Batch of 4 targets.
Target 1
Amino acid sequence: MTENKMGIMPVNKLVVTMSAPIIVSMLVQALYNIVDSVFVGMINEQSLTAVSLAFPVQNLMIGFATGTAVGMNALVSRSLGEKNFKRANAVGENGVFLALLSFIAFMIFGIFGSRLFMRSQTEIDYIISNGTNYLQVVCGLSVGIFFEISFERLLQSTGRTVYTLFTQGSGAVLNIILDPIFIFVLKMGVRGAAVATVIGQIAAAVIAILINKYKNPELTLDFRKFRPSGKLIGEIYKIGIPSIIMVAIGSVMTYLMNRILILYTPGKETSATVFGAYFKLNSFFFMPMFGLNNGVVPIIAYNYGARKRDRMMKAISLSMIYAEAFCFIGAALFLLIPDKLLGFFSASEQMLEIGVPALRIIALSFFFAGICISLGSAFQSLGKSIFSMITSIIRQLVVLVPAAYILARYGMNVGNQDLVWWCYPIAEVFSLAVTLICFRRLKRNVIDRIEDE
């Protein structure tokens, strides 16, 4: 077979062509996330709060899917760079098998654990009931999101990222169309938003499976004789588990932040709603950065397998530049028009009073985030996701949550409810310092030891 484009195409052009389709699809996905909450916010603020409080579980589910897929993606790309096509297929088959097991686990949680999870955060029956309905649907029918992400990563691992535009884009557009139908026309409320979400995910998964079968010749998955490989599963999770843990940490952080905001800020549930709205809004800038990472990971992994150090470093440098550009755009909008952004969610006067200063303070953390996220792609590509996990633990659990607790309690005492949001800039500065230290070690011990071919 001829050399894959990841080993010969000019790096800047390669990063753009690999990442652009994923970034566009991620933007569509982010738009769907916002539109989903926009329609829910039209019901009432408590419905939006219910979806916000359900977010940690939904985020954890996506984390298991993407974390496993990151490990699969990196190993498949590395195997292709080494021209080991049999191993690449075996990695893909085991990755899909792990996605199926993850779906079964979350389906069980959705059925039996949703109400207990919601009740642990609030005592308002309306929020508990709607949050439970939402989680039971999105977890119980999560097969779509797990298979969609797995088969999209298989396309990315061979450089065919343009097809992810069709998979994620079609699922998101379908979701946007179905949202008002299920929520308002069929009068299903918050449950209707969940049904629209899973239908879009299942449709995207079917499209991704078909594209892999007919348009991805470098991989020929055959499950008729499939047997799980403990060795390959271990290698996938060696790379993927740190990514899963990072998202799990994020979910724990979100859960604890919701608890802190409800217990120790004057706004209580409204503060948690603002926090949920922030996550929806920041996804419009951060998801494209993750899309950039998804495009860069196979480039770095492939050229690592092919022993092309110079191409690896160029890809890492370009990813940092592009990621920072997204961060500056996001920070500018959060600083200049926070009221307009919150207006998308039918924000009440109290929500605006809390949310406008919150977004402006959090925006300061964006200036540091791009470098941290882009270097995370280098950690994942080279099998050092443990570094990403360390920085995530320090940022979210060691610094952010304790800082939020201290600032919220102190803010209550001095009558300043805005202090709690400074936990974000503080945590991001610590995260940047640790990320740079880890990357310096990675460069010295791994990248610099490659003889560039």
Target 2
Amino acid sequence: MKIYTSRPFFTQLILGAASMFAANVSAEVKLPNIIGNDMVLQRDMPVPIWGWADKGEKVTVSFAGQSKTTKANENGKWMVKLSALKAKEAPAKMTIEGSNKIILENILVGEVWICSGQSNMEWSIRSSMNAKEEIAASNHPVIRLFNVPGHKVHPKPQERLAIPSDWKVCNPDTSSNFSAVGYYFGRRLLQELDVPVGLIGSNWGGTRIEPWTTLDGFESVSELSKEAEKVKSYKADTKVGGGSPSAIYNQMVHPLAPFAMRGAIWYQGESNGGEHMSYYHKKHALVNGWRKVFQNDELGFYWVQLANFRKPNVRVVQDPKKEFSNPAGGDGWAKIREAQTKALDIRHTGMAVAIDLADAHNPNDIHPRNKQDVGGRLAQWALHQTYGKKELVPTGPLYKGHKIKGGKVHLSFDHVGKGLMVGKKTKLEPTAEVKGGKLEHFSIAGEDKKWVWADAAIDGDTVVVSSKEVKKPVAVRYGFTMNPANANLYNKDGIPALPFRTDDW
């Protein structure tokens, strides 16, 4: 960043003398951290540029042939909005001029996304699978990275980050500590869209969803009135922590707004893992609030359904110390996964399923190292829905409905893609079709609500489920457990089916 003074010499001399007699002299134009050298600006939508200056001071922003002028308001804040820009890989300069002149360099125009959540989003490339090779290959000059440093909170929305940060050009020297999921998401976008990509990381391991949610978000959902009232009670000196509603948002997200961006990716939920529909309401609040503060009702929002974790639930018990057999399921994260799925009723959202990505040899690791497939599956959703690549199926088979015929339950699905298959996912390898394989992890129950493991078979674009033990079935469950080990229904695009149940018992 280059800063120049633009005042004539005598004007500076007079003002310098005046400062001997006045407490307040004209302040320099200043910018938030998120606006700086090496940044990526969002294409095809208005782009806010803002900062601070003296009350009434005239500020002019010039970029890409546009020149916008405004005056700082009574609080010393100013903002202009550049008209929609076209994608541009060639580096450009921006000039901001008031009492002083700021020149920002190496600016690109493309797609901007915020990458947020708890530790599985915070998890860096250097700690993930194939780290050495991935870091060495991360030389992408048109991907730019901005990471919000530290874990900071505040009772009131803040205009500046607690710890300064800046944009980095993505290369092996800058990429290793950035979010692995975010990087792999952005890399896929670059490969498919061939435009610059800006990624903003704001994460904090072990955090719940509430501290990331805005007051407006809480107020938009009647079921969360208690949370809204608590946030409204905060004063500037109220002590808040990493679990306090809105406290992380106030210090780690609000200072970024309203930077123009296309969307958000979100990996969080483990710390709310004991919840059910309450998480569904909180997801609505999160999305509503962020869309408002970033001034984008079409902000894409894609999250990760929680991965498989802890003791596998298998049909045939092989090692009692590691596995158990419970056809009813419903344990652990089964219900929060259901809430995450239900939240897909929010417009322009999607969810990457991850129940096949944990390490089968280390099921107690809450941080699956395969972040490549997580980022890739999030990008699959964005490419399909946000960017209109309808030839891509956005996700795996999603339960749509069922019919009961002659003692068998016939299940239908959305997102079948190229067809259904029995599949097997091994580390980073593409999902392999298991020819002649048997579907696992379906269970079935009759009116007595007693669950037994079921036989299931693919029939065209449907799955037929039955059991000799249940003559008159009424409900089916699939993968509805903390660790649905061996769940193996996929579409032929290689993405697993989402866990589901047809009952509400």
Target 3
Amino acid sequence: MPDKEHNQSPALFHALHLEGRDRLSVTGVEDVSGFDENTVLLQTSLGELCIRGEELRVERIDLDAGQLELRGQVQELRYDEPARGGLLSRLFG
């Protein structure tokens, strides 16, 4: 039986591959929100991904294929949850 996740289009299937904390490959990338040498913000098929580190540099990006590769000292990978409603629903929800 085929694996459902691997049958998704390249832009939808999301995976991370970190080699030795200095080489990161990401699939499922839909957009790059911003980057500098300490932070890379990506929109992925599973939400916003924030990559923090030192001397980060994007080596390759192909948004049509949903792929990004970067190098540098990766210190943190964090997914941000999408906002759920307005302020009142977050306070009282």
Target 4
Amino acid sequence: MTIAKLSSITLNEFLQLPETKPYCEYINGQIIAKPMPKGRHSRLQSKLCAVINQISETEKIAYAFPELRCSFGDRSIVPDLAICKWDQIPFTKEGEVSDNFILPPDWTIEILSPDQKPNKVIGNILYCLDYGCQLGWFIDPDDLSILSFIPNQQPKLLYSNDNLPILEGIKLQLTVDDVFSWLKMNV
């Protein structure tokens, strides 16, 4: 859903606006609201963050941030998960994580919500890849599939026991079935 099309607003002006819920993204001069996550989306997002961070945070390899605003190029987007390699995370001089990420994630994950348009979501993944992102996943809970994106390669549509590509350095092995099995909480 488009909130506003303001031809005179710049990315810097957008970044000065107060944050909203649902989050808004700035894409091609438009302010676009992301749909609020629903049950399956929220479950997959929280499990992916927990699994990735359990493996990668202690050794300072990477960190998975949910709903992190990333502003770079001429866009400001909020991927469902933005995974940054540790040496790419901006820290303050006190060692705290910075509030502002003016860079693309190293790995971006988007989970399709019922109210989202797939091409808009895939467009954000492709945009991240154009700016140096090393891996993208597009998760479709209705189709039980994950479309993976690696720079300079054709996307791969993965199902069931297909192994998923993981950001280099993260010692994690997952199949598509592993990811979607997290949706079954009451069995």
